[in-house]
TrEMBL record:
InterPro entries: GH, GH_1_N_CS, Glyco_hydro_1, Glyco_hydro_1_AS. GO terms for molecular function: beta-glucosidase activity. This is 6-phospho-beta-glucosidase. GO terms for cellular component: cytosol. It comes from Trichococcus palustris. Keywords: Glycosidase, Hydrolase. Pfam families: Glyco_hydro_1.
Amino acid sequence: MTDTFLWGGAIAANQAEGAYLEDGKKLTVMDVVPQGVNRRKIKQGLIDYKTVYDENAYHYPSHNGIDFYHTYPEDIKLLAEMGITAFRTSISWTRIYPTGEEKEPNAAGLHYYKSLFELCKSYGMEPVVTISHFDVPLHLVETYGSWKNRKMIDFYLKYARTLFVTFKGLVKYWITFNEINVILHNSFSGAGLILCDEENPEQVKYQAAHHELVASAAATKMAHEIDRDNQIGCMLAAGDYYPFSCHPKDVWSALNKNRESYFFIDIQSRGAYPSYADRLFAEKGVQLVTEKDDFRMLANYPVDFIALSYYTSRCISYESTAEITEANIMTSVKNPHLESSDWGWQMDPLGLRTTLNTLYDRYQKPLFLVENGLGAKDVLKNGTVSDDYRIEYLRQHIQAMRESQRDGVKMIGYLAWGCIDLVAASTGEMSKRYGFVYVDRDDEGHGTNARLKKKSFNWYKKVIASNGHCLD
């Protein structure tokens, strides 16, 4: 590890902040996604949230999160005690522009984030900021259809400019869109798309993606003009697909599934649509509506680095009889060579090394692992959690990352996901815990909200102090 390698943790505004209507903030997409049986299909855009929205009948976990909006001074102090040198969070778009259409930003929202970032800097932490992390203003969804409407580019750029100007000198590392490939899988939470009445959902998803890609390139241009020290990254939900067998059809299926995700990064990193896009669009009946300057913008303003989340690898078989397992957002055939977490996610540290090598070989740009962690059912006993299983998961993945660096992969840093327990994005549960710090809240949002150090807290503190050399 180099001396400049960043060690830290990551959260997201919609999973942690709470205070969902406080200080001028208005609703975002995740504020109308409930816990429970409808959650997945609403996130996918297959159920219109309005048909089931009922605050009396359902629990909406983003409304309170872990109350980070009010507790951040104590939380950042705890993280500083652990020695982290980078803290990733997202900005809630509606804290800055409550509907997305305002001409002037909300001063209270800017003040909140400025105070947060200044506090991070005072502790020697580099803020890593995601501009749009599953947080589209609901007003823009209802009024314009969200990212399927080209007007979203201008709304996004107005928002991004405000951030770049206000936080100049405080924030260096920016991510334009969290896990941009999620638009294909969780289209409502990822991009505010409601697909249940669409004749060709693929047309809507890829058209919306095109608008996001143009917006990302334009934001990269803008960020560099405002502060040449800014570093702008794209981000994908990563994890290579393995062929389930050596059958050529399985190998071909894996290649195509990997292309499905890398499609976005090909464009953001290389500056052009990949050659396989023509056939992809023809087979899906997609006809992009573009403007002449779009491709010039993409070509001239690629990202500086590639951020990724990694929790698990995936597996695919051409045979429909193969057993399916949970694999974060994407479906996967169960890999018989891997063990699974409490929530069915298969654990594969060597898959991280494979994925990092694939990405670096493909793009030759610095990688930033901004999410990695284990969601587990922690048991609080005598004021702590003995989470040896989490320590072992992280140890193996950090070791795999170190091996990838020996392979020649250039990396900016490693950020553990959910460094403080937060609401799980997949299920909306608090019981699916990732953190080094236990938060006393249950799945219904009840509890003292107290913060308690887990065993992994001191372990990660030693990892950071040794710059990743001490993993025992």
